[in-house]
Design a protein that fits this description.
One of its GO terms (cellular component) is membrane. By secondary structure, this protein is of the alpha/beta class. The chain has 18 helices and 13 strands. The strands form two sheets. The chain has a seven-stranded parallel sheet, sandwiched between helices. A six-stranded parallel sheet has the order 10-9-8-11-12-13, sandwiched between helices.
């Protein structure tokens, strides 16, 4: 049995955004228990915070329903391996982070074997497949939500929940220094810049870069002085981006990583739907969101989704503040026209920044510390 001041804590993340959240939580938990040990699955940020990862997190990063099917045997094997390891080590708590199709399966198995479970980042049960809340109520001792509307949903369904806010809201200042970001990237301080973020996964970049490149070409003809900056999430993503740009004469700079800095340096952003849209909101950047799934995946998802929006800024503000171009509505022409609206409407940009600032203030307040406090309270409860 671990000493109360040196608990063994397992955290399992499946993608880059979860790695950042996990790292912040590990650091907050270590401030509470300096001798705590951390195991599970994570990326480079969680490793830097002191976690020992059973296998590389990248093995879990798969996009879409049909894309996952080809990887199912390996994913099942990894899950069995992970569950067996956790049951052998018996950590004080298992904290699963996002990636619900994989991590909630882990939570189900370890919870049934008597381990305490916490899930950090609510799956979108309020938007689609609401029946999942029954399994969450059975398998998860505590849900940690990033957004207040999610906490209300769980309270209504009898799931123990804590709204902690979003760590990014604490990490990003309310006022963004655009010039400093441009200097950091070695970009000219004057002129207008469009940040282009086609996603961090190979499937996303493959689906989006043709239309994003077409949009950049159209915008270049319309605004010859406009420059483009693209952050590549990895060497593999950079190779995809470079291939899509080959043969064009666009004034584009591709940088390795630093997506947040790229957005901070920009006047507007054209981007894939996902967690990065929250960063765009917190940076107060006008954006256009595009997304496309495989045809079969989209056919399945579109029958299950109950939300009017896919982009986090629109979900959080409960209204269509930023354009969403999804599936058949996504094209280079539509993207270019939507970006042009932001470039030509400074008053609209100012109103958008006011809305985004209100959301930013609501989400601030020490999310990692709040999450650590909620986890500690769970551990201090009488064992099940």
């Amino acid at each position: 049995m671990d000493a109360p001041d040196a608990p063994l804590i397992a955290l399992i993340a499946g993608e880059a955004s979860g790695d950042l959240l996990g790292a912040g939580l590990i650091e907050a938990l270590r401030r509470r228990w300096p001798a705590a040990r951390f195991i599970g699955v994570g990326g480079e940020h969680m490793a830097a915070a002191g976690q020992h990862s059973l296998f590389p997190m990248e093995k879990l990063s798969v996009m879409g329903i049909t894309e996952v099917i080809g990887h199912l045997p390996e994913l099942f094997r990894l899950r069995r391996q992970l569950v067996d390891d956790l049951l052998a080590r018996r950590p004080a708590v298992v904290i699963t982070i996002d990636s619900p199709d994989f991590t909630l399966g882990v939570a189900k198995r370890v919870h049934a074997a008597g381990l305490k479970t916490v899930h950090y980042v609510s799956p979108s049960v309020w938007a689609w497949r609401q029946g999942r809340v029954k399994g969450i109520r059975r398998d998860v001792d505590l849900m940690l939500t990033l957004f207040p509307f999610e906490a209300r949903f769980y309270e209504e369904h009898g799931v123990p929940v804590a709204f902690v806010g979003h760590p990014l809201a604490d990490m990003i200042e309310l006022e963004v220094d655009t010039l400093a970001a441009r200097r950091e990237l070695g970009l000219a301080e004057d002129g207008r810049i469009l940040a282009v973020l086609p996603g961090s996964r190979g499937g996303e970049v493959g689906q989006l870069m043709p239309d994003f490149t077409d949009a950049m070409l159209r915008l270049h003809r319309r605004y010859p002085a406009l420059r483009f900056v693209i952050p590549a999430a990895s060497a593999a993503r950079r190779a995809q981006i470079d291939a899509a740009l080959a043969g064009t004469d666009l004034p584009v700079t591709v940088v390795d990583g630093r997506g947040r800095t790229v957005m901070a340096a920009a006047d507007a952003v054209m981007m894939a739907s996902g967690t990065a849209t929250l960063e765009g909101l917190l940076l107060k950047k006008p954006m256009v969101v595009g997304y496309r799934l495989g045809a079969v995946t989209f056919a399945i998802v579109s029958r299950l989704v109950k939300s009017d929006y896919v982009a986090l800024p629109n979900l959080l503000c409960r209204k269509a503040l930023v354009p969403e171009l999804v599936q058949k509505d996504l094209s280079g022409a539509a993207l270019a026209d939507a970006v042009a609206v932001w470039l030509d409407d400074p008053d609209g940009v100012a109103r958008l920044k006011d809305d985004f600032t209100r959301v930013h203030q609501q989400l601030r307040g020490g999310a990692s510390e709040k999450a650590a406090t909620a986890v500690a309270a769970l551990l201090e409860e009488t064992p099940r």
